Amino acid sequence: MKQEKVMKPCHENIEAEVTETMGLLDQVEHLEVHHLFRVRLMQRVEEELVQRGRGRVSTRLDVGLAFIVLLLLINLASALLVIKPEESQSAATVGQLADNQSDDYSSHEFAYYDQAASYVPEKP
Amino acid sequence: MTSDDELFRCLVTEHQEMVVNTCYRFVLNREDAEDLAQDVFVEVFRSLEQFREESKLSTWIYRIAVTKSLDHLRRLNRKKRFSSLKRMIGINDPGDDIAAPSQNNPAEAFAGNERSRILQDALQSLPETQKSAFILSKQEGYSNQEIADILNISVSAVESLIHRAKKKLHDKLYTYYAEH
Fold first, then answer.
1. Is residue A38 helix, strand or coil?
2. Which of B42, B106, B138 sits opposite A29 (nearest CB)?
3. What is the pLDDT of residues A60-78, one digit of tens each?
4. Domain match, B97 and B29 both
5. CATH number, residue B130
6. pLDDT at B34 over 50
């Protein structure tokens, strides 16, 4: 038990260790920047510029492609607009013919079918 | 060379040291800090046109540096958790066994020693805003007002965050040394 008490670090010792460890923060040396730092940085910046340029070209290509797709869509839409009325027109023509045919029997020439016969008895 | 390129070169010259050192304070590794600083300036280059002058240009750049550093630490933490999980289920990643390169730089030696590992672990356990305020307060060149601008909070909030971070860090370290 006595030995344990001796082995256990006392408060002063712990405080001294803590102070010494925290003191390391005040001893961190001031770094001199590496002489190639700026050269490397400028290389990276130039790479960045090249990438940005590539990005712009691809953006331009994207815009061009989008424009072509838009033109195609407009062409398709206008083609559909031209074809559709013709279709409806032809459908209308068929309907009209059918109507006309049915109307033929109700026309003036065939009107006797509809008219009740006017029977006049002969006078003796 | 356009005026934008010229402006960017001036920005790099003016702020590179502060950005590299800010990142270094967070990650405590020279290579990582320089890589992060490069990412910061590439981000600045990309977004310079969108800078709305709501804050000072320097504040905006240092804010990007802090954000990138925190992202890097988060990635490291995730990686660490994933490796320990893999070890738990018995998958050994050959990359984990490769020894770290020897450190011939005093700063890297600092980062490599046991005491610094304990400190880093304690720092990582702090909430991000506390950690950021505390780390920035330790770096020369940042006043509390500037830290407040970078973190987009009030000066009194910065003071409170630093105070709480110090206390929490102290408690963590105290517990660690009491147990070991």
1. helix
2. B106
3. 778 888 889 999 999 999 8
4. yes
5. 1.10.10.10
6. yes
